[in-house]
Design brief:
Chain A: It comes from Coilia grayii. Chain A: Its main location: mitochondrion. Chain A: This is Small ribosomal subunit protein mS25. Chain A: One of its GO terms (cellular component) is ribonucleoprotein complex. The complex is a heterodimer of chains A (171) and B (207). Chain A is an alpha+beta fold. Helix content of chain A is 33%, strand content 15%. Chain A contains five helices and four strands, in the order H-E-H-E-E-E-H-H-H. Chain A has a four-stranded mixed beta sheet with strand order 2-1-3-4, with helices on one face. Chain B has 207 residues and is mainly α. Chain B contains five helices and two strands, in the order H-H-H-H-H-E-E. In chain B, strands 1-2 form a two-stranded antiparallel ribbon. Chain B is rod-shaped and about 180 Å long. The N terminus of chain B is likely disordered. Classes of the chains: A alpha+beta (171), B mainly alpha (207).
Chain lengths: 171, 207
């Protein structure tokens, strides 16, 4: 079954995860005003078509609204936490330029993203299911007693041998 | 196990030497609460394992020390972590970081405003040029229309003049008689042939 739509690659996880813009915490709403015809709006149209899905995937809690054919010139408007509104004029710009511009003013920088990724990685001190932790049991660590199900314990460590010894020494 | 022991050790040491008749609580296990006790187990009384008092005393001391140290370590690590988290969120470091972020935000907004200004100027220029072009076009159109009108007027004037000229040769009621006389006096012969250049070639004789 073929993919649906004009550029169905926009719907693939691989494409979405390659999104560059991760907004800072205060950004809550993004509004894109553009026109469906006209060369000046071309960059904004491509931005809305190609980049907005990536942005929404990376920022699921930011509301993104698109307005078409309301104003003569295209622009982006961001509404921040403290009521501040940031206007970005995009008339005549290429869509890659727009992305770079937005990333510079309101996106998290590479350093911050790396630090966050590092923090999120699994804590080796936690033991639990493979999905959340690195190891499930201490027996998986090198240098520790292995799991008796995989490697039989030496006779002296087993409970029944010890019990037998204790019984034979007492009785 | 040790909790059960500690309950009994609180009593004086002499009582421990006797067989301990403490009834340990029953645990449910396989049977439900309505199932009767097994016939072989009706008179059974479970006793906890015997305790050596000297060993008990020594063990108790050691365990108090051990648990004290472990608790102290745990509390210390917990406090360290909490302090770090507090510092990160509401400490002096966080304030400095917040201030720095605010400054960066301000500078980025300023840069954004500059970009907007630059684009605004370009846009104004473009709009102005477009307006000028539009004006020029309108003027040209108006000019062309005016010229067309003038030419029309000229043509009409020429027509009028030619008509006026022709009017002199018209036959009116006054010259009627005169013109009739003239026409009768001068008979015209229209029977002639012309060649390709338009020159008269031959004429028939008037009859």
């Amino acid at each position: 079954m073929p993919m649906k739509g004009r550029f169905p690659i926009r719907r693939t996880l691989e494409y979405l995860q390659k999104g560059e813009i991760v907004f800072k915490k205060p950004v809550k709403i993004m509004t894109v005003n553009y026109n469906t015809h006209g060369e000046l709006s071309e960059g904004a149209r491509k931005f809305a078509f190609f980049k907005v899905p990536q942005i929404q995937y990376k920022n699921p809690w930011v509301q993104i609204v698109m307005f078409k054919n309301l104003t003569p010139s295209p622009f982006l408007k961001f509404y921040l936490d403290d009521g501040e509104q940031v206007l970005v004029d995009v008339e005549g710009k290429e869509y890659k330029e727009i992305t770079q511009h937005v990333r510079k003013i309101l996106g998290k920088s590479d350093a911050v993203l790396q630090a966050e990724a590092q923090q999120e990685s699994a804590n080796p001190a936690n033991f639990g299911p493979k999905k959340y932790c690195l190891k499930e049991c201490m027996s998986e660590v090198e240098g520790q007693v292995p799991h008796p199900g995989l490697v039989p314990l030496p006779k002296e460590m087993t409970g029944k041998y010890r019990a037998k010894m204790a019984a034979s020494s007492e009785g | 196990m040790f909790q059960a022991l500690s309950k009994t050790v609180r009593a004086p040491v002499a009582r421990i030497l006797a067989p301990r008749a403490v009834l340990v609580e029953t645990v449910r296990g396989r049977k439900s609460r309505t199932d009767p006790k097994a016939k072989s187990k009706i008179g059974r009384i479970k006793y906890p394992p015997p305790v050596d008092p000297e060993e008990m005393v020594v063990l108790k001391e050691r365990f108090t020390e051990y648990t004290l140290i472990m608790r102290a370590l745990r509390m210390q690590f917990k406090e360290e972590m909490l302090r770090k988290r507090y510092d990160e969120e509401t400490g002096s470091l966080a304030e400095a970081r917040a201030k720095q972020e605010a400054e960066e935000h301000q500078s980025l907004m300023a840069w954004n405003n500059q970009e907007n200004e630059r684009l605004r100027k370009i846009r104004e220029l473009r709009v102005q040029q477009e307006q000028e072009q539009l004006d020029r076009q309108l003027r040209e159109v108006a000019l062309a229309r005016q010229q067309a009108l003038e030419e029309l007027v000229k043509e009409k004037e020429l027509e009028i003049l030619t008509l006026q000229e022709d009017a002199k040769t018209f036959i009116t009621l006054e010259n009627l008689d005169q013109r009739i006389e003239e026409a009768l006096d001068n008979p015209k012969n229209y029977n002639f042939a012309i060649d390709k250049e338009g020159r008269v070639v031959k004429k028939t004789v008037m009859q």
